[in-house]
Amino acid sequence: MTDESIRWLLKILQPESTLGSLPGIATLTESTRAALLGLDPELYRAALAGMREGVRNAARELLADPVVATRVDRLPLPKGARIVAFGDSHTADPESWARILAEMLGMRREADDLSLTIRAVPGDTTTHALVRAGEVIATDPDWVLVFLGVNDARTQGPSPTKTLVAHEETARNLAELEHRMSGETKARCLWITAPAADEARVIAHWGLSRFGVRFRNEDVARVAAAVRRLGGPTIDLFSRLGTPPAPELLTSDGLHFGLAGQKRIALEILAGWSEV
Description:
By secondary structure, the chain is an alpha/beta fold. The protein has a single domain (3-273), classed as Rossmann fold, CATH 3.40.50. Helices cover 51% and strands 11% of the residues. The chain has a five-stranded parallel beta sheet with strand order 2-1-3-5-7, sandwiched between helices. Strands 4-6 form a two-stranded antiparallel sheet. Helix 7 crosses helix 14 (259-273), helix 8 packs parallel to helix 9 and helix 9 runs parallel beside helix 12 (217-228). The N and C termini lie far apart (45 Å).
């Protein structure tokens, strides 16, 4: 298995997240997680360590830009603020925008004692998110960064006609999430729309194709529109990153983002959030 294939598996298959409700799952060792993915433990550890170092380097590189550093300073976060990044594989990714942002907050605002917790499960839809909303509410957050919806637009098979979650249901789920976060916590929500995919690369990818995974950007666009209609502060990645996003931002599967793409997402979120 190539290094690229190993990194791809680590991005989308994370037993500690997808099996998170099982008793004792938090005690899984890296060797056990590697075994569950069919990987050699040493290769798993090396790949994960490299991804973590990439996140730290990305944070340092971004903060070297005075404009970006100022945006981190301007984020509406009082001392001791608790932030939750709530999402799917775009957020659970070991190289995700949320991990980059957490590193930036630690480097730039260490004295503010800020915490950023990631509550993200690869493959989750907005329906799954409703089930997991209690986990977020229980943390008593000050901000919830909600990045969900792309899996709602997922279809299966060579002639897809039905999304995993109907568009009307997605809109209802998002409205219910907003209602629960505003009614059961003091948190403000920052909504992040799902970005478009490279449809042809998704179909051709060795990993996604074996499961018959498909995405139509017309479906993703409708999910993004439902997020915008919530009316809260929104980072519109669907519009900002293009349809599809530039190839250099994406991994070979045309759906997930490499480190360059995750850095770009972190920048887009910083730019919008710092203006709230």
